[in-house]
């Protein structure tokens, strides 16, 4: 078989087609420090992958949700009794009522006197007061979390064209981020508040999740126009490490099926990113229709690679194999090499991308990453 580009190899694996060799695609965290490579530069990230001999992708600029122009905001800081740090509050005044979020203003808080919306893991971990508190808050939230605005999307055109030029230059695929599912709610509520809310206000929780999915579907339509080669749908906070199988099956699955249907309608492969807590859901995930499922955690959960293959093998592409904290973050180079051999033996050569369960971090032994890649080259 003629040698493929990284783009051809990854997209063929998504379709479970023959490849010249098993792709290996690794996510390097931006905090990684490697001499002569800037991990914030798309071209340097590609150059690092190419120099290592693995298969890169690059990300299109994110197409974000929009906020209604009717929303007015204000922020302030309060000292709260018995709290170690001041609390930063942000209030949103909407036609359907006011919402307020509070976060702990620690020395590590990177956003000054503002709380980004919808935020991120950092916001969730610093949560003091949940943005959404009762079933009466759903309608107000809809003013904050709206489908992407076309003018904002078109404002990204120059950046998108630049990234597409890099993709063509190096023969690498373009990935786009479609949405974060329940993670988007966790960012503004905190993990504990979101889980309690799902139990206390099940109907309102379903409406909130539905709103997030509506915005995701609108994003999918724009990502086709943007030229994405495949889409990432983050689902790492939707499994049973947070929610019951009943909530996943009753609330999340119907929304995922709608999003997958939309991706197929516009003709873009879509993959689902999971982490832990997925073992009771493997058969369900296999039936949703994703082109690929990525992540998992074979070391720090009770879900082995064999469990994953038994449920998903020959139904969808699987992108995983090596535990980032358990293998790459450990001190056993021989164990890393064995994990590579075991993964290839379990998953085979079609519909498989050798990957890691999370990003490669700067504080982990670089020799383990090199050992993983070296062993893969021997058996790919």
Written account of the structure:
The protein has 380 residues and is an alpha/beta fold. It folds into two domains: 6-64 and 145-379, TIM Barrel, CATH 3.20.20; 72-133, no CATH class. Helix content is 43%, strand content 16%. It has 15 helices and eleven strands. The chain has a seven-stranded parallel beta sheet, with helices on both faces. The chain has a four-stranded antiparallel beta sheet with strand order 2-3-4-5. Helix 11 (282-286) links the parallel strand 8 (270-274) and strand 9 (292-295). Helix 14 packs parallel to helix 15. The radius of gyration is 21 Å and the shape is globular. The relative contact order is 0.13.
Layout of SSEs?
Elements: H1 6-14, H2 42-52, E1 58-59, E2 72-78, E3 87-94, E4 97-104, H3 121-125, E5 127-129, H4 138-144, H5 150-155, H6 157-170, E6 174-179, H7 183-189, H8 191-200, H9 202-226, E7 230-234, H10 245-266, E8 270-274, H11 282-286, E9 292-295, H12 305-312, E10 317-322, H13 324-328, H14 333-347, E11 352-356, H15 366-379
Parallel strand pairs: 1-6, 6-7, 7-8, 8-9, 9-10, 10-11
Antiparallel strand pairs: 2-3, 3-4, 4-5
Helix pairs in contact: 7-8, 8-9, 9-10, 14-15
């Amino acid at each position: 078989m003629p040698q493929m580009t990284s783009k051809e190899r990854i997209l063929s694996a998504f379709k479970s087609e023959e490849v010249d060799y098993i792709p290996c695609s690794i996510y390097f965290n931006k905090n990684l420090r490697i001499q002569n490579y800037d991990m914030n530069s798309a071209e340097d990230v590609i150059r690092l992958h190419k120099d290592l001999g693995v298969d890169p992708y690059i990300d299109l600029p994110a197409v974000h949700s929009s906020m209604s122009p009717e929303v007015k905001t204000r922020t302030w800081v309060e000292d709260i009794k018995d709290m170690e740090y001041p609390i930063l509050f942000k209030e949103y005044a909407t036609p359907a009522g006011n919402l307020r979020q509070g976060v702990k203003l620690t020395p590590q808080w990177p956003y000054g006197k503002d709380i980004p919306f919808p935020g991120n893991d950092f916001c969730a971990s610093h949560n003091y007061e949940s943005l959404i508190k009762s079933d009466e808050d759903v309608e107000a939230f809809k003013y904050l979390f709206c489908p992407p605005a076309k003018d904002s999307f078109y404002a990204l055109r120059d950046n998108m064209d630049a990234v597409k030029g890099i993709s063509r230059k190096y023969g690498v695929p373009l990935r786009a981020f479609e949405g974060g599912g329940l993670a988007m709610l966790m960012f503004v509520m905190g993990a504990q508040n979101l889980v309690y809310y799902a139990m206390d206000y099940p109907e309102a929780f379903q409406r909130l999740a539905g709103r997030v999915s509506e915005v995701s579907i609108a994003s999918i339509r724009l990502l086709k126009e943007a030229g994405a080669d495949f889409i990432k749908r983050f689902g790492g906070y939707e499994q049973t490490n947070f929610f019951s199988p009943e909530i996943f099956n009753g609330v999340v699955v119907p929304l995922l099926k709608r999003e997958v249907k939309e991706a197929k309608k516009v003709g873009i492969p879509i993959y689902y990113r999971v982490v832990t807590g997925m073992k009771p859901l493997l058969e369900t995930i296999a039936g949703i229709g994703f082109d690929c499922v990525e992540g998992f955690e074979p070391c720090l959960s009770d879900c082995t690679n064999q469990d994953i293959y038994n449920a998903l093998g020959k139904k969808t592409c699987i992108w995983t194999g090596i535990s980032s904290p358990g293998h790459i973050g450990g001190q056993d180079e021989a164990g890393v090499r064995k994990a590579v051999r075991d993964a290839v033996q379990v998953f085979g050569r079609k519909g498989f991308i050798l990957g890691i369960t999370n990003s490669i971090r700067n504080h982990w032994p670089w020799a383990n990453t090199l050992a993983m890649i070296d062993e893969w080259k021997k058996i790919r």
